């Protein structure tokens, strides 16, 4: 995923209260990869289960 990739993520509990916010997903993924050595084993497992590519 490109570093500048942005996704609109809906937040809120109800359909009426939901607000779409832009989220810099590409940057977040890059940050997780660069911090892989400091992530907990549980977090690494959760991200791997979602299909995270570490290299």
Describe the protein's architecture and organization.
InterPro entries: Helicase_assoc. This is Helicase associated domain-containing protein. Pfam families: HA. The chain is of the alpha+beta class and 55 residues long. β1 and β2 form a beta hairpin. It starts with 6 loop residues before the first strand and ends in a 6-residue tail after the last helix.
Give me the secondary-structure topology:
Elements: E1 7-11, E2 19-23, H1 25-34, H2 41-49
Antiparallel strand pairs: 1-2
> Major β-sheet, in short?
2 strands, antiparallel
Shape estimate: extended
- From the helix content, strand content and strand pairing, which structural class follows? alpha+beta
Structure annotation, total helices: 2
Number of domains: 1
Determine the strand fraction and express it as a percent band.
Answer: 15-25%
Helix content: 25-40%
- The Rg value, from CA coordinates, equals 14 Å
Task: List the strand order in the largest sheet.
Answer: 1-2
Number of strands: 2
Mean pLDDT: 91
Region (Disordered): 1-25
InterPro entries: Helicase_assoc (IPR005114)
Pfam families: HA (PF03457)
Protein name: Helicase associated domain-containing protein
């Amino acid at each position: 995923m490109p570093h500048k990739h942005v996704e609109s993520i809906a937040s809120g509990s109800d359909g009426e209260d939901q607000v779409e916010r832009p989220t810099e997903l590409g940057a977040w993924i890059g940050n997780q990869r660069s911090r892989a050595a400091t992530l907990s084993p549980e977090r690494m497992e959760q991200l791997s289960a979602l299909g995270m590519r570490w290299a």
